[in-house]
Design goal:
The structure holds 2 protein chains of 2 kinds. By secondary structure, chain A is α+β, with helices and mostly antiparallel strands. Helices cover 54% and strands 9% of the residues of chain A. The two termini of chain A are 40 Å apart. The mean pLDDT of chain B is 90. The chains are: A alpha+beta, B alpha/beta. The interface between A and B is medium-sized, with 20 and 18 residues.
Chain lengths: 429, 123
């Protein structure tokens, strides 16, 4: 049913919300109740002065009655319906539903959004438990310490004589282990808190760097203008971070400054305006390497271009830079999906690769990933080059080619038959 | 004749507690704290039972178990595995590697003693 034919339904909804009888509204609008009934059931069109009068009586803007629910609400409902294809939701009546029950519709759309946010949180936490070596080690340490305390305490509590030297030994062990347990617990709480508020006190250095980059929006105006020293900026931004994280951040910012010097933002924007977000084309045009262009495109301000994601990995596949997009997640820990062009690039160094991608699960957007592996550092005669792969993630244009389904990481990927699977998925099961 | 048990574990206080309990039960307890040469230790001592931790410095308990099970001399050696991970797939991994019994930390002394006695009943 077309949206502009639902004005009557919206009048009825608003009248009921106002606690007004049909006869009362008809009387105030100087029409018969039976005619209003026809209008409210969308059997008579309404417009002009009568519409304005009814809107005034109902104390709403006329546009509310004629235009119905906001497009975002309709879009939210469509997303909810698409996510539960077997639910039997009457998609063809979605507009009628939103128009007649705006409160319920908003609640449904908001609930769907909330579920999405919670799903992403579960993904993050599951990912962390699986791949975070610090967390796994801390939990193992705690359980081992508890085992030692439990065992020693049980020996002391058992009836029967225990030689005095063994008694002293077990008392000492319990004392030591309880202190160790307290310290491990304190560290673990601090570590988990760090994940919540991005405070980096006890987080892994890479995680600290990721948090600092994210909080800066992956963009540093002082480095763009050449007015800041990368090392000094790293010290300032990483004042609360570990020394290792500051050192890593300094390297990232140093490269950022060099990129900004070699590819100034005005030149990049000019090329972008002419070619679109095509890193290989822009690289050729500006006479630099595509990896550098990918880093520059990922640093573009939001008002200039749609946000682009970036993943960088070393030759071992470890992610060393993560700039996720709201609809294209990157794992916080461990390796990503082996189907990503990022990893294909490592097997075909210097070869530009582009592929349309979509992540599974919710109705995520479609993307085009551009990837290339380039040597890291200078080439040394007689030594094999060390490669580093970049993958720029660009939102796909409407009507883009069929997307290759990829995941975030195996642990949370529902694709059951995948040659690249490393471990079972908690979602698939 | 006393029976010998090899405890491969890197937590000193767990070693002391388990050693005490097993010694009191009549076992001769040998200990080893490193994963790297743990299999070699089993070959040299040839104990009646092995208690093997999963997370060891140098090498995982699963790897040690697989290596031992690959040798005919240790195909039937009773091996009790101790781990802090109690998930189903960890148990499956231990079972596929050929473990005789599997215990999740924290366990009670009596559970551990019962498991060891079940693995090597007195003739």
């Amino acid at each position: 049913m077309a949206r502009d034919t639902l004005t009557g339904s919206r009048i009825r909804e608003r009248r009921i919300m106002a606690g007004m009888k049909q006869a009362e509204l008809a009387r105030k609008a100087s029409i018969s109740a039976s005619y209003l009934n026809l209008i409210e059931h969308n059997r008579r069109r309404i417009g002009g002065k009568l519409l304005l009068d009814i809107a005034q009586i109902l104390d709403v803007e006329p546009a509310i009655l004629t235009e119905g629910a906001e497009a975002t609400l309709i879009a939210g409902l469509r997303e909810a319906a698409a996510h539960a294809r077997d639910s039997g939701a009457e998609i063809e009546r979605i507009d009628e539903f939103a128009g007649r029950f705006p409160g319920w519709a908003d609640l449904l759309a908001e609930s769907h959004r909330r579920i999405g946010a919670l799903e992403r949180m579960v993904e993050t936490l599951s990912d962390r438990l699986t791949h975070d070596p610090h967390l796994a080690e801390a939990l193992h340490e705690m359980l081992s310490t508890v085992t030692a305390i439990k065992s020693s305490a049980a020996i002391l509590a058992e009836p029967g004589e225990i030689p005095p030297d063994w008694q002293r030994r077990f008392h000492r062990n319990i004392h030591e282990d309880s202190a160790r347990l307290a310290e491990t617990s304190r560290m673990l709480v601090g570590y988990l808190d760090a994940a919540e508020d991005a405070s980096a006190e006890t987080a892994a250095p890479q995680e600290e760097v990721d948090a600092i980059l994210a909080s800066a929006g992956y963009r540093f105006a002082a480095l763009e203008s050449g007015t800041a020293d990368p090392a000094a900026l790293a010290r300032a931004l990483g004042a609360e971070a570990s020394g290792t994280a500051r050192e890593m951040l300094s390297a990232v910012l140093g490269r950022y400054a060099e990129d900004a010097r070699r590819v100034p933002m005005p030149a990049l924007q000019e090329a972008l305006a002419e070619t679109g977000p095509e890193p290989f084309v822009i690289a050729e045009r500006l006479g630099t390497d595509a990896a550098q262009i990918m880093r520059r495109l990922a640093a573009l301000p939001a008002e200039v271009a749609p946000p682009m994601g970036l993943a960088i990995c070393d030759g071992a596949g470890a992610l060393t830079y993560r700039k996720p997009l709201p609809d294209f997640a990157l794992p916080r820990f461990g390796a990503g999906c082996p189907l990503w062009p990022l990893y294909h690039a490592l097997t075909r160094p210097m070869m530009p690769l582009s592929a349309p991608l979509a992540q599974p699960g919710r109705e995520r957007g479609r993307f085009v990933a551009h990837a290339v592996a380039v040597p890291r550092g200078p080439l040394v005669p007689g030594a094999p080059p060390l490669f580093e792969a970049h993958m720029l993630i660009v939102p796909a244009a409407p009507g883009a080619a069929e997307s290759l389904p990829v995941g975030v990481t195996c642990r949370i990927c529902p694709r059951e038959r995948c040659a690249g699977r490393r471990e079972p998925s908690i979602i698939a099961r | 004749m006393t029976r010998e048990i090899l405890l491969i574990e890197d937590e000193r206080n767990i070693i002391e507690a388990i050693s005490f309990i097993l010694s009191r039960d009549g076992w001769t307890v040998r200990t080893h704290s490193n994963g790297t040469d743990a299999a070699e230790k089993v070959r040299s001592l040839r104990p009646d039972v092995v208690i093997l931790d999963v997370m060891l410095p140098g090498r995982s308990g699963y790897d040690i178990l697989r290596e031992l099970r690959g040798e005919p001399a240790f195909a039937d050696l009773p091996i009790l595995m101790l781990t802090a991970r109690g998930q189903a797939r960890d148990r499956e991994m231990a079972e596929s590697a050929g473990v005789s019994a599997y215990m999740t930390k924290p366990f009670s002394n009596s559970e551990m003693l019962d498991a060891v006695r079940a693995l090597a009943p007195v003739p």
